[in-house]
Specification:
six-stranded parallel beta sheet, about 280 residues, two-stranded parallel ribbon, single chain, alpha/beta, elongated, TIM Barrel, 8 strands
Length: about 280
C-alpha cells in the first residue's frame, strides 16, 4: 500500500534542512544560552529571534524562493536544453472554464499540468478523468485551498496534502508527483511534509495574475516576457478573472501564448514529461 494511504508516513531520510533553517536553529539555541548566562541580554536575544522569524515569514511569502527547500521555478536543465516549457493551470477543475480550456489545448496539440484542488476534484470527478484522458497531468494543489495554508503546522499541512493525494489518486488512477501551495505561500514545515509524501514543490517562472487582472492583453504580455526555454507558466481555470465582456481571461490569453511558443520553437510539456 502506498505510504500516503497509511496515515502519516515516517519522515523521508532524503530530506535535509536548508542553510537558513539550520542557522535559525543555531540562533535560537544561542539566544537561549545567552539569556541563561546573562539575563540582562534578553532584549538583544529576543530581538534577534524576532528578526529571524520575520525573515522566515518574508521568505515564505516569496513563492519562487529556494531558501525553505527545493522548488521548481524553472524546468530542469535537460528539459531546457530540449527547448521545453510547461503550462500549469491552477485552482480547478471548474465545470464551465476547464472544458473550454481542454478544447483549446486540443486544438493547439499541447499538454498541460493542472494543479487541482481535492474537494473540487471530488465534486467533478468526470472532469478530472477527462483531463487525464486527453493526455494532461493532474497534480496536488491541496484538498481545500485554505487561505491560511501558509500558517498551518505540520499536522495541518500533512492532512491537506494527504487528503488531496488520496482524492486525486482515487479519481484519476495517477498519483500526483508535484505540489503547488495555495497562492504559492508556505512555511518551514512544508518541505519535510512534501518529502514524506514524495512530492516536489513547483511554483513558476512567469505569471499574469489572471485571477485579479481582467485585461487579457496585460496578462498575456506578462507571460510573453517570461516565455523562453525552461519556463513554467502559470494560469488559472478556477477563480479566473473575467474580461469586461465576461470571458474568462485564460481563454483570451492562451491562444496567443501558445502561438508565440510555437513560433519560438518551444515545446509545451507537462512537469512529469520534463522529468525525463
Amino acid at each position: 500500500m502506498p505510504p500516503f494511504l497509511r496515515g502519516h508516513p515516517v519522515a523521508d531520510p532524503r530530506w535535509h534542512s536548508t542553510p537558513l533553517i539550520r542557522l535559525s536553529l543555531v540562533l535560537h539555541a544561542l539566544a537561549l544560552a545567552a539569556m541563561a548566562v546573562a539575563p540582562a541580554a534578553w532584549p538583544w536575544a529576543l530581538a534577534a529571534v524576532v528578526a529571524n522569524h520575520l525573515l522566515i515569514a518574508a521568505v515564505g511569502l516569496w513563492p519562487r524562493s529556494h531558501w525553505l527547500g527545493p522548488n521548481w521555478t524553472r524546468l530542469p536543465a535537460a528539459a531546457t536544453a530540449r527547448h521545453e516549457i510547461a503550462l500549469t493551470i491552477d485552482d480547478g477543475p471548474d465545470p464551465v472554464v476547464t472544458p473550454q480550456v481542454l478544447d483549446l489545448l486540443d486544438r493547439h496539440g499541447v499538454q498541460a499540468t493542472f494543479f487541482c484542488i481535492g474537494e473540487l476534484a471530488a465534486r467533478y470527478p468526470e472532469l478530472c478523468r477527462d483531463i487525464v484522458s486527453r493526455g494532461h497531468a493532474i497534480e496536488n494543489h491541496s484538498q481545500h485551498h485554505r487561505h491560511y495554508f501558509s500558517v498551518m503546522g505540520p499536522r495541518g499541512l500533512a492532512r491537506e496534502l494527504q487528503a488531496a493525494q488520496e482524492t486525486l489518486t482515487r479519481i484519476c488512477g495517477q498519483r500526483p508527483l508535484f505540489f503547488r501551495a495555495p497562492a504559492g505561500l508556505r512555511n518551514p514545515f512544508l518541505e519535510p511534509v512534501l518529502a514524506r509524501f514524495g512530492l516536489r514543490l513547483a511554483t513558476w517562472s512567469a505569471r499574469g495574475f489572471d485571477t485579479r487582472i481582467d485585461d487579457a492583453d496585460r496578462v498575456k504580455s506578462s507571460l510573453l516576457r517570461g516565455l523562453r526555454a525552461g519556463a513554467i507558466l502559470l494560469l488559472h481555470d478556477g477563480h479566473a478573472a473575467r474580461t469586461p465582456q465576461g470571458v474568462p481571461v485564460i481563454l483570451e490569453v492562451l491562444p496567443g501564448v501558445l502561438d508565440a511558443a510555437a513560433a519560438a520553437g518551444l515545446r509545451v510539456v507537462t512537469l512529469r514529461q520534463a522529468l525525463s
